[in-house]
Amino acid sequence: MKRILALIVFFMLSVAVVSCSSSKGGGSAKTFKRNVEASYYADKFNGRKTASGEKFHNSDLTAAHRKLPFGTKLRVTNVKNGESVVVTVNDRGPHKAGRELDLTKRAFMTITDNKNHGFIRVNIEVLN
């Protein structure tokens, strides 16, 4: 009986994952989070090492996430204006509760419609 329940749960989770996939932009993408907060790094972090060992540069298209593996490509889309950018996870964070991503300044400014705000609401898709 336990084995049958486990198979049912596995099947239901598989259907949920498949139903969240999208083919926008020519590649396969899976919706990871919707309508979450993203912020950007302060300039004082330039040149410091990230958790992956890479040097941080605010001019790159990278991001920090608490759990996603380093090297994961994400499409981050501003909920308000639909603008999106592809970033690579190379650090851990953000360290502020309620935030899902820390983007480099370049990535953030590419998709924001108000350069005076420190955070925006985004949708996140995993590309790989």
From TrEMBL:
InterPro entries per the UniProt record, alphabetical: RlpA (IPR034718), RlpA-like_DPBB (IPR009009), RlpA-like_sf (IPR036908), RplA (IPR012997)
SUPFAM superfamilies registered for this protein in UniProt: Barwin-like endoglucanases
Entry's Gene Ontology cellular component terms: plasma membrane
GO MF, one example: lytic endotransglycosylase activity
Localization annotation: Cell membrane
Major localization listed first in the record, in broad terms: membrane
GO BP terms: cell wall organization; peptidoglycan metabolic process
Membrane topology term: Lipid-anchor
Pfam entry (one): DPBB_1
Domain RlpA-like protein double-psi beta-barrel intervals: 35-123
Signal sequence interval, chain numbering: 1-21
Keyword terms, alphabetized: Cell membrane, Cell wall biogenesis/degradation, Lipoprotein, Lyase, Membrane, Palmitate, Signal
Positions of transmembrane segments: none
EC number: 4.2.2.-
Top-level taxon in the UniProt lineage: Bacteria
Record's function text: Lytic transglycosylase with a strong preference for naked glycan strands that lack stem peptides.
NCBIfam families: rlpA
Family affiliation: Belongs to the RlpA family.
Protein's UniProt name: Probable endolytic peptidoglycan transglycosylase RlpA
Gene that this polypeptide is encoded by: rlpA
